């Protein structure tokens, strides 16, 4: 499945998503490794088959095996971290904020690609998963690495659009198979 077939599989009511997917694919603020890695990480985070298949096929044409592995690793580690840190943030008792996480996160320190690119993938996934604490942490790291606010925003926009596309396709799949 290609990006074009992914766009064409979206219903008419999701025309804005088609347009946003197209414009983000043509985004020039990010390098190909940043852009396609972020798309792949977010697609893995949402896990919807059509979205994941199309974006993985696109990424495989543009990314090195190391970048593909890093995108998947960002999705995996943020799947854990986003739940943990969002929970710590939401619990009102201050004790939990002072306790060590005691969760292995080695890939963050050695992702196998440029640290800033991995941080961007992690930011996109954190946007999908809705963890404000992680968004703050990754945004700060990206800014330290010299990314502009517009580049950071592009990563968030990728997460938002991938999430929306996946949700529409998942809902359409359910309604297509539901008994009348």
TrEMBL record:
It catalyses: N(6)-[(R)-dihydrolipoyl]-L-lysyl-[lipoyl-carrier protein] + a hydroperoxide = N(6)-[(R)-lipoyl]-L-lysyl-[lipoyl-carrier protein] + an alcohol + H2O. Its EC number is 1.11.1.28. Keywords: Antioxidant, Disulfide bond, Oxidoreductase, Peroxidase, Redox-active center. Gene3D superfamilies: AhpD-like. It comes from the Bacteria. One of its GO terms (biological process) is cell redox homeostasis. This is Alkyl hydroperoxide reductase AhpD. It comes from Hyphomonas atlantica.
């Amino acid at each position: 499945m290609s990006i074009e077939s992914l766009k064409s599989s979206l219903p008419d009511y999701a025309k804005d998503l088609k347009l946003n997917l197209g414009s983000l694919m043509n985004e020039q603020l990010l390098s190909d490794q940043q852009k396609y890695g972020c798309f792949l990480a977010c697609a893995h985070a949402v896990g919807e088959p059509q979205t994941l298949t199309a974006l993985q096929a696109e990424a495989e044409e543009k990314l090195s095996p190391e970048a593909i592995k890093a995108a998947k690793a960002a999705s995996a580690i943020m799947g854990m971290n986003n739940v943990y840190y969002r929970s710590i943030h939401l619990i009102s008792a201050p004790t939990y904020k002072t306790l060590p996480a005691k969760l292995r996160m080695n890939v963050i320190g050695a992702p196998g690609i440029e640290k800033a690119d991995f941080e961007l993938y992690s930011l996109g996934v954190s946007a999908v998963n809705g963890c404000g604490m992680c968004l703050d942490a990754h945004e700060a790291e990206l800014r330290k690495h010299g990314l502009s606010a517009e580049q950071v925003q592009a990563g968030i926009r990728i997460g938002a659009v991938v999430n929306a596309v996946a949700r529409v396709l998942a809902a359409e799949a359910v309604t297509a198979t539901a008994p009348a």
